[in-house]
Specification:
Largest sheet: 5 strands, parallel
Radius of gyration: 26 Å
Helix content: 55-70%
Number of helices: 15
Structural class: mainly alpha
Order of helices and strands: EHEHHEHEEHHHHHHHHHHH
Strand content: 5-15%
Strand order of the largest sheet: 2-1-3-4-5
Shape: elongated
Distance between the termini: 53 Å
């Protein structure tokens, strides 16, 4: 999905939009700029494709020409008054999704007043506009590009306009990770859509992101509970995390096939990596809160816990002793932080449900199909857990 969504009316500003699209594409790359008829695959539902693209964009540029407000259809009715008008749908979708909207005034146009627009577009009249003048077109577009990079962190291999080529439009890896983490938390479906550029490196970036999340989350958790030999535990956590993602994504791919949707394993993995990463961050955040509370009551609880797990006692006995140890520590301050941890976990579940919508956006499928595939996937997981429990009980102590 593209970062920059260009909304325009052909009868009003097609030429100016084409010129701007060429400049934006040359600077940011074709995958980062959405221009309706060029970006929608043949056979796609036009309205659904528009809504998906708007909802996952970083910013919408609305091209406003002299006739933008007053353009009429063949019957003489103003297009903006038609609820099915695509320009109106695009702007309404952006305002509803919280996507920043920037009016771009071309060919001497001025911003329309709120009272001249349909009520659903009234907020558009108060958006800060930028002007692209015919006489200083290149300078104005340079300023627009620089603003898009500075304000919305849209990356480019090209230097930032106006810096004489001394400042790169590329964001360093640590800043990119921080920005992606923030956007993953705030707008998961948007971030996931942006990572699906069709480039061969999409999966490399996804697993690098997963690796960074696993290392940072596990480090925070282990420091929180005071576990020694942190490096070994982090390495183990990263390996188990990657194996878990691979297994869960493989089962989810099978679930999609079982409900009649042929989807490739790599497509599921690319989406699932980001959902798992966000969920793991939430889980570790809650676990750290719980661990801090437990240690306030019993400072050596986790050292004792590991000693029990590593002892040579029968498995059932070790599980009972470990559970009793933690239950005895969960009182006083620990119970308060446990409530906070449960709140974090509850928010994480809600976030995961929202982020799961990335499958619907990316696969352009119905909610029913998503629910069916998810139900089949959960059923398979529960079955595997039952088998694992049965096998564990069957093994000698």
């Amino acid at each position: 999905m593209a970062d920059i969504f260009l909304s325009y009316r052909r009868q009003d500003s097609q030429s100016a939009t084409g010129r701007l699209a060429d400049r934006l594409t040359a600077h940011f790359g074709a995958t980062r700029v959405f221009l309706d008829h060029e970006s929608i695959v043949a056979g796609d539902d036009f309205a659904d494709a528009i809504r998906r693209s708007v909802g996952t964009a970083v910013v919408m540029l609305v091209m406003v020409g002299p006739d933008w407000r007053g353009t009429c259809d063949a019957n003489g009715k103003r297009r903006l008054d038609d609820e099915k008008d695509f320009v109106r749908l695009e702007i309404e979708s952006a305002l509803l999704a919280g996507v920043p909207v920037i009016p771009v005034l071309v060919e001497g146009a001025v911003m329309p007043e709120a009272q001249t627009l349909p009520p659903s577009l009234a907020r558009f009249a108060h958006c800060q506009a930028t002007e692209l003048s015919q006489t200083r077109w290149n300078d104005d577009v340079d300023r627009l590009i620089a603003m898009l990079q500075a304000r919305f962190a849209i990356e480019s291999e090209q230097p930032v306009p106006g810096t004489g080529g001394t400042e790169s439009g590329r964001i360093n890896v640590f800043a990119r990770l921080a920005l992606d983490l923030l956007e993953l938390v705030a707008h998961p479906t948007r971030l996931i859509a942006r990572q699906q550029t069709g480039h061969v490196l999409d999966h490399v970036r996804a697993f690098m992101f997963l690796f960074a999340v696993l290392v940072l989350s596990n480090l925070a958790f282990l420091l929180g509970i005071g576990i020694p030999s942190i490096a070994e535990w982090i390495a183990l956590g990263v390996i188990l995390g990657i194996l878990t993602v691979t297994l869960l994504a493989a089962l989810l791919t099978l679930a999609w096939w079982l409900v009649g949707t042929r989807i490739e394993f790599r497509q599921v993995t690319l989406i699932f990596v980001y959902i798992y990463s966000g969920s793991w961050i939430g889980f570790c955040a809650g676990a750290v809160l719980m661990a801090m509370g437990v240690q306030l009551v019993t400072p050596d609880v986790f050292t004792d816990y590991l000693a029990i797990v590593r002892s040579g006692a029968p498995l059932a006995q070790r599980m009972d002793e470990a559970r009793a140890l933690l239950e005895n520590a969960l009182h006083g301050p620990a119970s308060v932080l446990l409530v906070l941890a449960c709140l974090v976990w509850g928010l994480t579940v809600g976030w995961t449900i929202v982020a799961w919508g990335a499958f619907r956006n990316s696969l352009a499928t119905s909610r029913i199909k998503v629910v069916m595939a998810t139900a089949v996937w959960v059923a398979m997981l529960l079955m595997l857990m039952q088998i694992a429990t049965w096998v564990g009980r069957s093994l000698p102590s």
